[in-house]
Design brief:
Blueprint (H helix, E strand, L loop, with lengths): L3 E12 L4 E11 L2 E4 L8 H23 L3 E13 L5 E13 L5 H11 L3 H4 L6 E10 L5 E4 L5 E7 L4 E6 L5
Parallel strand pairs: 5-6
Antiparallel strand pairs: 1-2, 1-4, 2-3, 4-5, 6-7, 8-9
């Protein structure tokens, strides 16, 4: 059986106060090449659905970071969605790397932000039987320290596989 794969990435820059979006670029991986996502009347509906999941996660990252008094400078994000041959969702992996001014968020802050991201309206309406992972990394603008979470615990990144056009990351079983 053939899987349907959708891979998007975004790059955002923010203005203060309130982490207002100053610049936002979203790309989609098509035939191994990143191209700008151009939503119009010819955009396939499932791709729009994937984008809605991604933008919902991004919105909740921004707003809940603001609620926790984190000033975002920029963020990069990736979403990989796998669907069956019959277009049924099977797996969703979301990853954001955000740069902040000032101190890094506490573990409690990161857990809160990730839990809220998982409860954005689009995410709340996903089928219960799919595999879903959400990860957020925060680093200082000076890149001196890094805080990484996958919901409840430390997160180990495997990296981005350009040849396959997918990114992979893993949590320890206790974190899932």
């Amino acid at each position: 059986m053939s899987k349907q794969l959708f891979n998007l990435r975004l790059a955002a820059a923010y203005a203060q106060p309130d982490n207002t979006i100053d610049k936002l670029d979203v790309d989609v991986l098509v035939d191994g090449e990143w191209t700008a996502l151009d939503l119009d009347t010819r955009t396939p509906g499932f791709l729009i659905y994937v984008y809605s999941m991604f933008t919902c996660q991004h919105t909740f990252l921004r707003t809940n970071s603001t609620e926790r008094n984190l000033e975002l400078n920029d963020a990069q994000g990736f979403i990989l969605v796998e669907a069956s041959e019959d277009w049924l969702l099977e797996k969703i992996d979301v990853q954001f790397d955000a740069t902040v001014s000032g101190s890094l968020p506490s573990e409690e802050d990161v857990d809160y932000i990730v839990s809220r991201m998982k409860n954005c309206p689009v995410s709340r309406n996903l089928p219960e039987n799919i595999i879903s992972h959400t990860r957020v990394d925060f680093k200082n603008i000076d890149k001196a320290r890094k805080s990484s979470h996958c919901g409840l615990g430390p997160f180990s990144r495997k990296g981005f596989d350009i040849e396959d056009g997918r990114f992979a990351f893993s949590c320890t079983p206790a974190d899932l």
